[in-house]
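Hi,

I'm pasting everything inline rather than attaching a file, because the server keeps stripping attachments. The sequence lines come first, and each chain or strand is labelled.
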Amino acid sequence: DAKTTQPTSMDCAEGRAANLPCNHSTISGNEYVYWYRQIHSQGPQYIIHGLKNNETNEMASLIITEDRKSSTLILPHATLRDTAVYYCIVRAAHSGGGADGLTFGKGTHLIIQP
Amino acid sequence: NAGVMQNPRHLVRRRGQEARLRCSPMKGHSHVYWYRQLPEEGLKFMVYLQKENIIDESGMPKERFSAEFPKEGPSILRIQQVVRGDSAAYFCASSPPNKREMGYEQYFGPGTRLTVT
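And the predicted assembly:
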């Protein structure tokens, strides 16, 4: 799996958009970009994933650059409950469904300020 | 639709005892994954199972640890003769069976916090 690089920590004001960057310059053509987050002491929570196109769901938007070497997770209106460690993970899917485990790096500790 | 369930949520064992951690995947999910998170460290993959089969155990310690996902009932992570270094949060995740699209997500449970005294 391709390696990802994320800032160690970021601050964002409550109500503002939080933009979390991720570099994955060695990503392969069949690898997806996944985002998870872990709120203190809880299990990781899936946020979003994408391959080439930008994606949006009820939680966030994922912007992937045209060359796919980097991406940005956007939380449009951050709240205090969005304070968590955010993990960007690059992973190939397997044609048979399911896959091996995810490789979590250190992630970005996002702190939402009141 | 209930999420991934794990029990117990907290488990205290003395050194040398056995620990059994249970995971019930989301309804309809047939893939289960176990992860371990040591204090102040990131999550590490341990094992991936489908019903009655271990698919990938590359992250499992070679000794004392075993996992199963029987045809009926929850997945079990078993740690024999626990040591203090086994104290950690153990998370289970599940994902749905084969999907046509090439991306999928894993849904995590709340974890079991194991403390070895």
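The CA atoms of residues 21 and 72 of chain A lie 4 Å apart.

If the labels don't parse on your end, tell me and I'll reformat.
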